[in-house]
Amino acid sequence: MFDVAQIRSEFPLLTDRTIDSERLVYLDSGNTSQKPRRVIDAMSSFMETSYAPINRSSYRLAGEATEAYEAGRTAIARLVNAPSADEVVFTKNASEAMNLVAMAWGRANLATGDVVVLTEMEHHANIVPWQMLAQERGIEIRWIGLTPDGQLDLSNLDELLDRAKVLSFTAMSNVLGTIPPTKKLCAAAHAAGALAIVDACQFVPHNVTDVQDWNADFVAFSSHKMCGPSGIGMLWGKMEILDAMPPFMGGGNMIDTVTFDGFTTAPVPAKFEPGTPAITEAVGLAAAVEFLEDIGMANIRQHEMALTRYALDTLNHRFGDDITIYGPDNVEVRGGVFSFTFRDLHPHDVSQVLDEKNVCVRAGHHCAKPLMKTLGVNATTRASVYLYNDESDIDALADGLDGATDIFGL
Amino acid sequence: MPGLEDLYREIILDHYRTPRNRGELETPPAVKIDGHNPLCGDEITVYLTVDGTGDDAVVTDIKIGGQGCSISQSSASMMTKAVMGKPVSEINAVMRRFKTMMGIDGIEMADADSEVDLGELEALQGVVKFPVRIKCAVLSWNTLSNALDAALNPVE
User: Fold this and answer.
1) Of A156, A145, A105, A180, which Cα lies nearest the Cα of A330?
2) What is d(CA B130, CA B2) in angstroms, rounded to the nearest whole number?
3) Are A311 and A394 in contact (CB under 8 A)?
4) pLDDT for position B61
5) Would you call A360 a catalytic residue per the annotation?
6) pLDDT per residue over A338-378, tens digit each?
7) Distance, CA of A181 to CA of B60 (rounded, Å)
8) DSSP-assigned beta bridge partners for residue A288
9) Which residues pair with residue A341 across a beta bridge?
């Protein structure tokens, strides 16, 4: 039995914080998730008892801190079934992970005229780094389009992948919730001789992830969307590719040796981790992974599928033609993200009215402006759920939308 | 805690439902300047014609295009009424007063600015209690400022 009340009780902000003496209805986890007590405690406790530099000093405390930091890497490898923890590179966030791939691997392997295939539902983090590379060296970017219900239109995939060196795509759209066939897309990329890069930022926090089953080459995701702290993200990559790549950024920790004439690099993953990393955050991340594992990723997915079904049905039944919810209706291929337009109201006004009821949603383009163009809108309102949400949160959202009607007199 | 009635005053909703001076002007002679709010994706286009030069130049026509929320749209609509037929010196004074009302730092007020009557624009005062919406209210004014620059300093 999935006990939302029990889970919610582990999140201080969700239980203790009130605004206008009322609890918060947090429906913005696609943006960032709230943090359970054990993550907060793990970070505080580490700073109070074990904080020290990592990988540098030889005293025992530093060794302890290094072990704690590396435990974060081990936890992540376990969570996504990576063959080796050394294949997990810590970055600042998933955006930096995507930039690392585009700039380090891309610069070493892509030349003018080479083709990179993206999809129309990508986050800016999986668009702009490639566009920067396109400006720098004239690579060609092609786009996989969408079907009317917001799934990838794969009818011309072979054509798009012809001569492609990269297929880089999201495993779950942050706007539509769409979960594309990631394993199939990775296979198609490889069949075309292209690298398969997966933006799994929205996927990993909500699903069982198996990077080996996908047979992806790179997978980027972040800590803060999966109950961990902000300030740390992950790039998993196949060792032979990471090993052959040049470094991304230079500095301390990433070198083997430095002379007046040049440098050699440290082995992966240190090669990609210059400077002092987010040490305390890695400790908090390990606690977040253990928290999620205790509940079970498959259970979280089941809960969110049921909640997604409830949300789609509730909003559509209550508001009919007044609401347009984007993305697929089939919860088998959709996560708990609901982007919608409501009557003629601008999303900023919708979210303002919802905020009056303590319902926290995001309004805007969700860092996916090209997708907004495909959808034919300027912006949407987006509610997104996580393991601590239940049907009462969806009901609060619907009640809040009723309030919008009153204010604007529609 | 400010209530929504502080934000969504009736006159604001009126300008939102029935925006004044919406449309386009032929370019040239009009200048056309786009403004964006990267936070929310709101876009506004200001079409502007002026007669004369420098501070004495007069706005002879203004039209607004683009889309946005009730605050950005109503602010733009009220702005067109406030600047139509006015000299640039007076528009700049209103702009300084308006931005100061919005709590924007670093606006240097001229001595005479305290005399400026904001008229309907006063209705937007409640926006300042909702800090994330201030950008919505000033988007059209910032775009107008760029449009005036372009109109008064044409690139030959």
Assistant:
1) A180
2) 8
3) yes
4) 93
5) no
6) 999 999 899 999 999 999 999 999 998 999 999 999 999 98
7) 57
8) none
9) A324
Q: Which residue in the set A356, A372, A408 is minimally distant from B13, CB to CB?
A: A408
Q: How many Cα atoms sit within 13 Å of A28 on the Cβ side? A: 19
Q: How far apart are CA A201 and CA A182, in angstroms?
A: 13
Round to whole Å and give the CA distance between B40 and A2. Answer: 36
> Residue A365 and residue B69: Cβ atoms within 8 Å?
no
Is residue B129, in this structure, part of any structural domain at all? yes
Exposed/middle/buried for residue A87 (C-beta within 10 Å: 0-12, 13-18, 19+): buried
Compute the Cα dihedral for A407, B3, B9, B12 and give only its sign: negative
As for the ipTM of the complex, it is 0.81
Beta bridge partners of B45: B34, B65
- CATH code for the domain of B39: 3.90.1010.10
Any domain includes B79: yes
* Full set of structural domains in chain A with CATH: 4-29+296-408 (3.90.1150.10)
pLDDT computed for residue B1 by the predictor: 55
Tell me if B47 is assigned to some domain: yes
Q: Is A272 exposed, middle or buried (0-12, 13-18, 19+ CB in 10 A)?
A: buried
Domains contained in chain B, number? 1
Chain A contact probe: residue of B1, B4, B17 with most A CBs at under 10 A = B4
Q: Quickly list H helices, A192-270.
A: 211-214, 239-244
Give the residues of chain B that fall short of pLDDT 70: 1-2, 156
pLDDT at position B106 = 79
Is residue B32 one of the residues assigned to a domain?
Answer: yes
> Phi and psi dihedrals of A155, rounded to 5?
-65, -30
For strands A18-19 and A22-23, give the pairing: antiparallel
Q: Which domain holds residue B140?
A: 4-151
Q: Do A356 and B69 touch (CB under 8 A)?
A: no
Whole-angstrom distance, CA of residue A381 vs CA of residue A326: 10
Please give the biggest Cα pair distance in chain B: 52
Q: Does the distance separating the beta carbons of A372 and B41 come in below 8 Å?
A: yes
